[in-house]
Structures are given as C-alpha cells and as structure tokens.
Specification:
The protein has 139 residues and is mainly α. Helices cover 60% and strands 6% of the residues. The chain contains 6 helices and 3 strands; from the N terminus they run E-H-H-E-E-H-H-H-H. The protein has helices at 11-18, 22-30, 49-63, 68-78, 86-119, 129-135; strands at residues 8-9, 38-39, 45-48. A 3-stranded antiparallel sheet has the order 1-3-2. The chain is elongated. The termini are far apart.
C-alpha cells in the first residue's frame, strides 16, 4: 500500500502556487472560505494540499465573476460530492444570465459613446457635442 505524502506550504508558497495574494489568502481564511490552517512552532500558518485546491477553486470562481456568496454556495456543494448538482446548475445559470445582461448593457453603452464620438466635430469645447451630451439631463 502506497501512502500519499502530504505536502505543506507557507502562506508565501501558497500565494505563489495559486496566484492569490497573501492578504487575500488571510481574508479568505477570516471569512471562512478557506479552512483554518495549522500553526507551526513559530505560530506561522501551515497550509496543505486541500488549501491549495480550495484556493484555486475560489480564485477561478472569482475570475469568472461569481460573488463571494456564490463561491461559498459552490464550495458547500463541492464539499458534498454525492449531492445532486441542481444548486450548482442554478447558480451557474443565474450567473450566466447576469453576465449576458452586463454584455447587453455594455453594448448599449458602446453605442451611446460611439454616437457621441461620431457627432463630435473637434472644434472648440463650447461647441463640443460630447460635452453637450454629458451635460444633458435627458438620459
């Protein structure tokens, strides 16, 4: 029988391996997203493989724009490997819809800015259509 050797990391090493800053790692521990780390003889934190995997999960979830509450819910589901994934699916679908709405909002913003820039004749500020558009109360 082969025993798997548990690797241990300092907070700095964990930061390097995951791309998550040290203050953020501490914060995730403080808010309960990352399990408490063991303490070494000098009181410094000692992290294991489970911290590394969980931190990568958190980082990736945040990169995809999931809120901290959503990440907490995703982690709770990930911790129950035999549970149905309906909640995970629901969260992902809701997030996808929010992303699509943001994209639509950004496209509308792009069109509005493009219209302002196109209307600009580049003369003096007094005649600037961009300044006029930004000063207008009709939104």
């Amino acid at each position: 029988m082969t025993m798997k050797v548990q690797r241990h990391f300092s907070i700095g090493e964990l930061s390097k391996r995951t791309g998550v800053g040290v203050p953020t790692i501490r914060y995730y521990g403080d808010v309960g997203l990352l399990p408490e780390a063991a303490r070494g003889p000098g009181g410094h934190r000692i992290f294991g493989e489970e911290h590394l995997k969980r931190l990568v999960f958190i980082r990736r979830s945040r990169e995809l724009g999931f809120s901290q509450d959503d990440v907490r819910a995703l982690l709770a589901n990930a911790d129950q490997r035999d549970a149905p994934c309906a909640d995970v699916d629901r969260l992902a679908r809701e997030h996808l819809e929010a992303v699509r709405q943001k994209i639509a909002d950004l496209r509308a913003l792009e069109r509005a800015l493009e219209g302002m820039v196109t209307a600009c004749q580049g003369h003096v500020v007094e005649e600037c259509s961009i300044i006029d558009a930004l000063s207008s109360s009709s939104v």
